[in-house]
């Protein structure tokens, strides 16, 4: 996937020199365009001082010497990259630079959103260059991870706080999401069994993949925690003949989901409940949560396990699908302040706090992070293609914020800074479990769904 021309990808696209003009070491690589006067705004203040340049150089070294260069407001060019930079950031004023000293993630993001920073060579390329360095250097002090982790731990992700956090991101208008998500508004990682699949096909493949993992069969009862716009709940009922109780605290998403279920004649099979996951009761044959764990809060993982244990039948299976990371970390401050308030992306060891206290048996763990990178590429392309309509809804700050969010997310999944885990589990003494993993790929071989309607 190659997103359309935009500030996030190719508005400032690197130019390609001919093979004869390139040094041997650069052949086949993208080269940044020459810096011109139009690349930076007219200097609104005095030129960069030696201290300004030292400060920027020090920050780049602390970040691991990423393959980027930074252009200051007076066209001073700073880089510590050991190889020719692949992208550049243009900082238009001194105050933005000094704010980045306090919190690089938060104030770079804010600076970009506000137009105080521009990126040339592609936002995805720029963020990927930064992310790749986090694997080889310790940036905990640079990003104030210890302090932010402590502050995060002090916050309580109460039901009221959860409602506020969800409203911040998901209740900004269904019409906005309809511009760039798939037809069913599935806002989680798709599953590209074939990389040539369309986004719509890959989202359906993801839903089937989830249904096979929990072994759905006609007549089963399912609890879904965090149902979004209802795509998975409706899919399970329609194609697997199950009854679903789907929980969500986003009013706009629930209104859409209920209307769709009614239109498809599935209101008797799918109940959309406006309530927090902490209030789930009853019993079920399968527990499914796709894309909710990121909003639960690490301190609540044990409670989530207790809720699941209280409703899952003895032979039932569960699945949790979540963005994660390879080792415990604190999500960057710009994302947690501007995009997903209260979010936490767990490592597998942290996820075990859900399963181990309840003596659940983990049956399967799959990491499909590259599928999420591809999903995001589709989303970003559609977002850019519909910018005129987005501008009718929101201002330029919003447009640049969401462009950065989607681009940085692509980079994070490509570089391995973020993972996408699907964990399947059951009660520890349940022997009614698959003998092999072969059944997971039945649909990919063209076999019919269990309980599929004809």
Output the CATH topology of the largest domain: Rossmann fold
Q: Count the helices. How many? A: 16
Q: How widely separated are the two ends?
A: 34 Å
Name of the top-level CATH class of the largest domain: Alpha Beta
Low-confidence stretches: 1-29, 147-154
Structural class: alpha/beta
Strand elements, count: 11
Order of helices and strands: HEEEHHEHHHHHEHEHEEHEHHEHHHE
Architecture of the largest domain, CATH level 2? 3-Layer(aba) Sandwich
Would you give an account of this structure?
The model is unreliable at 1-29 and 147-154 (pLDDT under 50). The protein is built from 16 helices and eleven strands. The protein folds into two domains: 30-143, Nonspecific Lipid-transfer Protein, Chain A; 159-445, 3-Layer(aba) Sandwich (Rossmann fold). It is elongated. Helix 11 (301-311) packs across helix 13 and helix 14 runs antiparallel to helix 16. By secondary structure, the protein is α/β, with parallel strands linked by helices.
Quickly list its features.
454 residues; Nonspecific Lipid-transfer Protein, Chain A; Rossmann fold; 2 domains; seven-stranded mixed beta sheet; four-stranded mixed beta sheet; elongated
State the gist of this model.
The chain has 16 helices and eleven strands. It has helices at residues 50-62, 94-102, 104-113, 123-133, 145-154, 159-170, 174-178, 199-213, 231-240, 251-263, 301-311, 333-339, 348-355, 369-385, 387-393, 396-415; strands at residues 68-71, 77-78, 87-91, 117-120, 221-225, 243-248, 270-274, 284-290, 312-324, 360-367, 419-427.
